[in-house]
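### Sample
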Amino acid sequence: MTAQRYDVAVVGGGLAGIAAAVRLADAGATVALLEGRPRLGGATYSFRRGELTVDTGQHVFLRCYTDYLALLRRLGTAEAVEVQDRFDVPVLAPGRPVHRLRRTRGLPAPLHLLPALLGYAPLSVRERLGALRAAAALRFVDPDAPATDERSLGEFFAARHQSPDTVRRLWELIAVSALNVAPDGASLALAARVFRTGLLTSARAGDIGRPRIALSALHADPAVRVLGELGATVRTRCKVERISRSGADLTLSTSDGAVVARSVVLAVPHPAAARLVPPGAVEAPQRWAELSATAIVNVHLVYDRTVTGHGFAAAIDSPVQWLFDRTRESGLRSGQYLAVSLSAADALLGRPAAELIAEQRDALATLLPGARGAELTEAFVTREPRATFRQAPGTRAIRPATRTELPGLVLAGAWVGTGWPDTMEGAVRSGNAAADAIAEHLGGSAGSARTAGTRAAAGRPPDTPPSTVDEAASPTNLDPRLTSEAAS
């Protein structure tokens, strides 16, 4: 049987692969999107658990995520997210009133954050003034300078005399959640990208956005629909095992047959990309292993009643990092569903689910008065061992360029050298860059996809390991003394 030939084969159905496939299909290319798992979405997906729709991770975005928001418009789901009118984060701490870290309307950047930092009650007056000086210095750190990437964010804070309390109670709120690593192990270049782009350059750039529907309904399902409407082929459960040159084409050997394409977008995590990239296409792909990975753990708690009015909140001096109200998105009909997101969580991967659940249950009871008399009706843990690459100093030199030495083969994914951290925005930017490189290779217009996508959206209604799920058999199993857990 003769293999069907396409203009482009996109390997990997995460956000980078979706962005590339839609952009190229919009430009008129014949596209096959190949995904080894049963569904698209990559790390941003959902699954059913009883009556609940559960997201594997608690993904938020910022107003400055321009490429990501453009993709949502193209998929017809931009109306399914909400963005704050202004950056506003409730900060919870044991024994303290709720403090709100928010920008002031009407002031230009970076003055928009001046009142917030000066009034930040968890720090002393001296620490607040020191934080202001550090913020001013961060604004002038060049995230694109190679030397910046050789330093850690922790070194920067030490040089600016930031106290441990300042780092823990202020800077880590953003840095750890954005970079999935503690400041001492975080690239200063990537941190500067986050702080400068999101908070210090534009007053509105850091306003926080949240999905109001499940992640699969936001990304994967509409991507399948849009690509189908464009005549593209989407094949799930189709694992690519080898890519080889066949004359002017590239042949992809897959788990269900061969695919032939004029060009390939390799949009898979770096361990899989290192295995699949043909010899000579890139220099030393084995170095990509140095990017490593860091984990995110989520503890999911369903209460018998509403325990907080916060849609989301950060916590300091607590085992809780960030909590999210997932009641509406999950479809829960009674009670309240909170998800606690724990970044830089490698040390938590081996801890029993019952222990993690009990720790977070008790911590939330100290933060939320409404949780003290409430009962848990369900609780479980999801773990993403390879949630992001390790965004450490020196990674800039390891992250590869989009283009390879093999004509027609390009790389995509949040781990590729976009200059952005491992975020949804970084993934979509990499997919768009890959699509533009392929459009040039095919002789098309690199800008046509953006134009076509904008027109189409205007008429529409508004090989990483999978995450593991651990559960306690019943609320009685939540005693912190218990260490056993049900099989995942």
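The longest strand covers residues 376-388. This sample (Phytoene dehydrogenase) is used throughout the tutorial notebook.
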